[in-house]
């Protein structure tokens, strides 16, 4: 053993000839302030948010809101309620909403 430690990944990269071919963006720069204060999931959420990613349920929420504000017929209400069921399955339980009724459309516009 020539080395003081086992560097398995380094050995694999050496064998493939790729050891020095890495161009890592941000290499050598300090971590952003607060990076170590958050856990892995919180860091993922921040990076995803900065990249413009929206969870599926938030996209549905915006779509339902637009549909509710433009709804006029019973057919529109049925489509909205179908989307609300899909939304309730995907969103956190505290964010779930009730189906919309044609008589209470004005109230639904305030909620959505």
Question: Can you walk me through this structure?
Answer:
With 112 residues, the protein is mostly helical. The protein has a domain at 56-111. The protein is built from five helices and no strands. The chain has helices at residues 8-16, 40-50, 56-70, 74-90, 105-111. Helix 3 (56-70) runs antiparallel to helix 4 (74-90). The longest helix is centred in the C-terminal third of the chain and has 17 residues, at 74-90. 7% of the residues are buried.
Features:
5 helices, mainly alpha, 53% helix, elongated, 112 residues
| Beta strands, count | 0
Number of helices: 5
Order of helices and strands: HHHHH
Class of secondary structure makeup = mainly alpha
* Terminal Cα span: 67 Å
Low-confidence stretches: none
Q: Roughly what is the average pLDDT, rounded to an integer?
A: 87
Helix content: 40-55%
- Give the amount of beta strand, in percent: under 5%
Largest sheet: none
Overall, the morphology is: elongated
Work out the radius of gyration: 25 Å
